[in-house]
Amino acid sequence: MNSLGLILSNRRYWAPAYAFMCLNLIYGTWAIYIPTIKEALGINKSQLGMAIFAMAFGNFFILTLSPKINDFLGCGRSTKLGLLALCVFGVGPYLASNYISLCITLFLVGAAQGFLDVSMNATVSEIEKDDKVTLMAAMHGFFSLGGVVAGLGTFLIPIINAPVIHSLLIILLIALPNYSLSKHYESVTATVTKRSKKAPNALKPLLLLGVISLVAMGSEGAIIDWSGLYLEEIVQVNTSWIGAGFLVFSITMTLGRFLGDGLSNRLGSEKVLILGILTSVIGYVGVLTADSTFSIIGFAIIGAGFSVLVPELFRMAGKQDQIPSSKAIAIVAGFGYSGFLTGPVILGITAENYGLRVSFYGLIVAAVTIGIFSIYLSIKKNIRTANS
Questions:
Q1: pLDDT grade, residue 57 (50/70/90)?
Q2: DSSP of 106-151
Q3: What's phi and psi for 268, nearest 5 deg?
Q4: Considering only the top CATH level, what class is 197-388?
Q5: Which of these CATH numbers, 1.20.1250.20, 1.20.120.1200, 3.20.10.10, 3.40.50.720, describes 1-192?
Q6: What confidence score (pLDDT) does residue 95 get?
Q7: Interval 77-128: pLDDT, tens
Q8: Mean pLDDT over all residues of the chain?
Q9: Residue 281: which residues within 8 A CB-CB, separation 6 or more?
Q10: What are the two backbone dihedrals, phi and then psi, of residue 327, each rounded to the nearest 5 degrees?
Q11: N or C terminus of the chain: which is more exposed, having fewer CB within 10 Å?
């Protein structure tokens, strides 16, 4: 049975999948209210950028503590705690009365997000090892699905007309089912290994995975934030099609992640990385033609290529046996989140100085670069296999 079928037919797998979806429900709901909150507090784009950076700082801060908390509580209980923290802090940005309080609440949301992200990925990694199943890509598919559901919440904005109430409804949607679902994963723990003499050497491939994660998630964040403006200014599509790039990117990202575990079983992680990056490069070529049809199709192809990258990187980090899975995933996640949150900023600075099209050329160069890194990882694995 494929991974999606396993998840939908077994509560042990469905429970963490729902946690993945809930994480992006909170983040996606915040994202659709960014313009509303910006206007309500009367802050400018620069201040908004710093507030979002406070969320990134919250991520970085907690990533240094997450592995220790996971070792102490167990990654399953940590996942339950992370969801609770996200529910408690998630309403904060909508209650912020000034810029300082917005930054503080976003820091807390970022910390809760980072903690939950590490904990639930470590939990799934342990479930994969214990049950001899492959689920990680599909789990991330539910994360993407959470973003789609949050995006559909845009249609509720004029109906509810109250960000706080909207956020509380989302929190109830998260908290109530997870109260019963958490019992299916909270007993999961990762083996706490003693420090190995090989551990420093194990950091080297993890750092390379981290760099690939940084570029992949940075590019993903850039496309989410800038695809609409690219279609409007460079491709000059009709106004009604401005959001088409993000929409098709999100759809293929979700579908690709539901199919990714099957690819991983057949090809292996390193080959999946290479295939995903090659696919994204083809997509960039379509986007850069600046033809409306090819550009929109290009964004869809990029989504398909990117869909398998982060789940595979987390799977590879969790599988190595020299460093505990929660610590390994925290390293890769730390790089990835830094890219996701700073990538759009870097692209914006590049676009401001050199033009939006040039910045997208930078994205394709970045994709080719991590493609070379992935080929290097594949070659190293083949050499190790041949020598063993």
A1: confident
A2: HHHHHHHHHHHHHHHHHHHHHHHHHHT---HHHHHHHHHHHHHHHH
A3: 95, 155
A4: mainly alpha
A5: 1.20.1250.20
A6: 94
A7: 999 999 999 999 999 999 999 999 999 999 999 999 989 988 998 899 889 8
A8: 86
A9: 305, 364, 367, 368, 371
A10: -70, -45
A11: C
pLDDT for 142 beyond 50 = yes
Residue count of the chain, please give it. 388
Would you state the structure tokens that stand for residue 182, as one six-digit string?
A: 């958490």
- Over 258-313, what HEC string results? HHHHHHHHHHCHHHHHHHHHHHHHHHHHHHHCCCHHHHHHHHHHHHHHHHCHHHHH
Cβ proximity of 174 and 86 under 8 Å:
yes
The pLDDT > 90 percentage for the chain reads 36
Q: Cβ–Cβ contacts within 10 Å for residue 232, how many? A: 17
Domain span(s) for CATH 1.20.1250.20 in the chain: 1-192, 197-388
Q: What is the pLDDT of residue 81?
A: 94
> What integer pLDDT is reported at residue 161 of this predicted model?
81
Q: Which residues fall within 8 angstroms of residue 218, CB to CB, at 6 or more apart?
A: 338, 339, 340, 342, 343, 346, 366
Contacts of 189 (CB under 8 A, 6+ apart): 74, 75, 76, 126
pLDDT classification of 239: cutoffs 50, 70, 90: confident
Instruction: Give the integer Cα–Cα distance in Å for 120 and 131.
Output: 16
Whether residue 168 has pLDDT greater than 50: yes
